[in-house]
Amino acid sequence: MAEFFRPEVRAFAWRWRDVLLGVALVLLGIWWRLGSVGIGQWLGYGMIGLGVIWALAGAQRARFRQDGDGPGVVQIRERRLAYFGPLDGGVIDVADLTMLELDPTAHPAPHWVLTGVGGQRIAIPINAKGAEELFDIFAGLPGIKTTTMLDVLSRTPDARVIIWSKVRPLLH
What we know:
- This protein has helices spanning 7-15, 17-35, 39-64, 134-139, 146-155, and strands at 73-77, 80-84, 89-93, 97-103, 111-116, 121-125, 161-165.
- The chain is α+β, with helices and mostly antiparallel strands.
- It has a four-stranded antiparallel sheet with strand order 6-5-4-7, with helices on one face.
């Protein structure tokens, strides 16, 4: 059955799967809303709302996802991020992150550059295997604007861009 669809169509559907599921949930909610009485109508309204939220969140995730054919593997376990690449890698706690940058000049693909408290840096290709899991980590950073991050990722600037940095409290 997998050979029924062209590889490009399968890749598109897989990348946008959350949006497609959200739209399917909205359509099911509309069908329940129009075809039911009583509590079924209210369940339809709930499904429509849930589907819209799911589709909007899925659109952000789909914009973040890449093909996943890049070098290295990203793993996230218990708020600890690890990147294992062919030439380098590293491990950093999410709580220790102080800066997130996008370096479009890195080779062979643009890299996320994560800086920790002690100054250690980890460069992760945006298309590394498992890099789609970084969206949840990045979205959880205090004060980050995910729309700004997605805009920078989609337009691919010419130089390194700071997307987020930890606010350092002033002592006096």
